[in-house]
Amino acid sequence: MSVKFITHLASVIMLLLFFSIASWYEGSELLDHPWEWKYTAIFSQMVNAEILNKSDISQLDFFIYAIKFKPLYPMLMMVAIIYMILLLGYSSYKTKPKKFALFLTALGVFIAFLGNLISHSPTVGGSIFKVSLIVTGSVCLCFGVVYYFQLYRVRNKRFN
Questions:
Q1: Residue 140 buriedness (CB in 10 A; 0-12 / 13-18 / 19+)
Q2: What is the mean pLDDT of each run of 10 residues along the chain (160 residues)?
Q3: What is the pTM of this model?
Q4: I need a labelling partner for 128 at 20 to 30 A (CA). Which of 86, 114, 139, 153 fits?
Q5: How far apart are alpha carbons 92 and 117 in whole angstroms?
Q6: Domain ranges in the chain?
């Protein structure tokens, strides 16, 4: 592992930690809005059938609230996570370009699928998050496919 890779990875982990804490803090506003518990406290409803007081709310629901109503830090979290995954994928498949192209394609499909999962969000933040996931997934998918066919074209030129 090179110093450059470790520096990038450490930097993105620190940014991810900061963005996660900021998202968690902003999402803690959920505790002050009991009328939102029914629509936003999804994880809490999985654990407890009914949410009666603040102590029943899961910490993960804070992130959902932040995505729905204050999407800046969750979006930055998403960017940091995707960058970290791309960095680790590139490091793993640096010598195997075909596998890296397939990795990019699979990552793009997965990210676009995640964006499609939250496609029915009635809030502006949820819509912004959905669109950004679908666009990011599409870009990864396109880069993966173009990179794969570029490798295929270069390989065929060598043999002709």
A1: buried
A2: 91 97 93 85 82 83 90 93 94 90 94 85 86 92 89 66
A3: 0.84
A4: 86
A5: 29
A6: 1-72, 93-160
